[in-house]
Write a structure and sequence with these properties.
Chain lengths: 152, 351
């Protein structure tokens, strides 16, 4: 049985990276990170297995990120952060990702970083598999257009 | 561009270790943090906490002002955290007959928090429902963007006729540029709202739901500024959802009108409209079961000419609807008073 500290340490990076994928700003990702774990501590859900636990955190992170990005104050003003990664190529990709709708960034992250298949992403995000497939395909096309390079 | 680059980028991302530690601290029993400490006299607690703060933080700033025990007690009455961390300011400005006072401040790294109060010197416009209409700003030598901020009401004191607020702001890298003075300003005060913050039953009959409502695809949201938010852990993709086609508005609560209620694709939809929306009025719904359980919901709002529409979605089966009663919380009415309230105060670095 894992205690709360072990759970937080286990999923800290994953939650933070999912939040960052959606909002693309450290300050906002930090806020969402806290909100996700505060919800966990408040709700203390029972998980059937480790995969269920992991997907709960991913789902709640996208949920919190979405609410955060559409909250009243974020609608007024969202300044962009400057270069945040080590390599120029990484910063170029990061800038290109910032130009995509957040819903596309979610599927990109779950597919390319967390390694989930379309059906699994659909289950996590509660979207139809067809919708996820289209979003992934459009996200790739838009990135390709922005970067004028292949994203595969 | 390779997907390996995306992975490599993400490997560089980690949450702030202090945030992780703070969260972990919350999982530990409170007794181990406060224990005997909470039984000490208040002045002793203040002294110990102040010393701890100075010792632990290299970026904390305070204002150069008196720190009387009486005022400190008032801050403690707001919360132990405010009493321990905030520095008194107590500087005021008056505009339009309303006095705005910056009572206390806590600046730590990139975060700034304020306790401010409003008092009507000429009438009774300031009551428990008065608000700042998101019109507060921080002015300092280098422009402060307030990339995220929020305001929480701290209640109305009928004795002093003051309405207090706790304002918190965050701006990345702000901690490097605080300077010697700080100004806090407010440009709009909203008053006269009708706040119903406790869930009240509303006249929506769930046995009369339309099971074949006319709907439109959520794709229309792509062309509009819109907002959305959910309760609990529900995730909802507003772009893939269907929305009710608004019906003839029916008077509902104050200026809030009901424009549709229907069930489609697994969701109960309740749609409202507010004409000539002032940015403040809104309504939140709850489906409450007999045993008190509340069903999670998701609300999407968008603007259509001068009206704001709100559609709330509940994931519920038709046969389960009879088990629920609809409750709501809402804010209606309100007038905006424009003015110029600004308080400038000195900062003293505790480094």
């Amino acid at each position: 049985m894992q205690n709360d500290e072990e759970i937080i340490r286990k999923y800290a990076d994953m939650v933070y990276r999912m939040a960052f994928a959606h909002v693309r700003r450290h300050a906002d990702a930090d806020d969402i990170f806290q909100e996700v774990f505060l919800r966990y501590l408040k709700k203390r859900p029972q998980f059937e297995n480790e995969e269920h636990e992991k997907r709960w955190f991913l789902k709640v992170t996208t949920n919190c990120a979405k609410s955060y990005l559409t909250s009243a104050w974020m609608r007024y003003f969202v300044p962009l952060e400057g270069e945040i990664f080590k390599e120029p190529e990484e910063n170029r990709l990061s800038e290109a990702l910032s130009q995509l709708p957040p819903k596309y960034r979610d599927v990109i992250h779950l597919h390319y970083y967390e390694g989930y298949k379309t059906e699994e992403i659909a289950e996590i995000l509660r979207r139809k598999p067809d919708t996820v497939r289209k979003q992934l395909s459009r996200a790739r096309e838009q990135l390709k257009e922005i970067l004028k390079e292949e994203f595969s | 561009m390779k997907s390996a680059v995306y992975r490599q980028m993400n490997e560089q991302l980690h949450p702030n270790p202090k945030t992780v530690d703070k969260l972990i601290e919350q999982t530990r029993p409170q007794k181990s943090i406060f224990g005997k400490f909470s039984r000490l006299p208040k002045p002793a607690r203040t002294a110990i906490l102040t010393a701890l703060i100075v010792a632990l933080s290299s970026t904390t700033l305070t204002v150069a002002s008196d720190n009387s025990a009486e005022f400190r007690d008032m801050l403690y009455s707001i919360s132990p955290r405010v009493g321990a961390l905030f520095s008194p300011v107590m500087m005021s400005d008056v505009s339009q007959g309303i006095q705005m006072t910056v009572e206390a401040v806590y600046i730590n790294g990139d975060d700034a928090e304020f306790i401010i109060s409003l008092k009507d010197l000429e009438g009774d416009r300031i009551s428990k429902s008065a608000g700042l209409n998101d019109s507060y700003h921080i002015i300092r030598p280098i422009y402060f963007d307030m990339s995220s901020y929020g305001c929480a009401g701290l209640g109305y004191d009928p004795e002093t006729q003051k309405r207090r607020y706790h304002i918190f702001t965050h701006e990345p890298n702000a901690g490097k540029f605080w300077g010697d003075t700080l100004s806090f300003s407010v440009s709009e005060i909203m008053y006269g709202m009708n706040f119903v913050r406790e869930k009240v039953p509303v006249p929506i009959d769930l046995t009369q739901v339309d099971y074949n409502p006319k709907t439109v695809s959520g794709a229309f949201l792509n062309e509009k500024g819109h907002g959305s938010g959910g309760t609990g852990t529900i995730y909802f993709d507003e772009y893939s959802a269907e929305y009710l086609v608004p019906q003839t508005p029916q008077d509902f609560i104050d200026e809030i009108q009901l424009t549709g209620i229907g069930w489609k694709n697994g969701y109960l939809h309740i749609q409202n409209c507010i004409e000539n929306w002032n940015g403040n009025s809104h309504i939140g719904y709850y489906l409450v079961a007999e045993n008190g359980d509340i069903l999670e919901s998701f609300t999407v709002s968008w603007k259509e000419t001068s009206s704001e529409y709100f559609e709330t979605f509940f994931e519920v089966k038709p046969e389960e609807l009879k088990n629920y009663q609809v409750y709501a919380e809402y804010v209606t009415g309100g007038e905006i008073l424009k003015g110029n309230w600004e308080v400038k105060f000195p900062l003293k670095n505790l480094e």
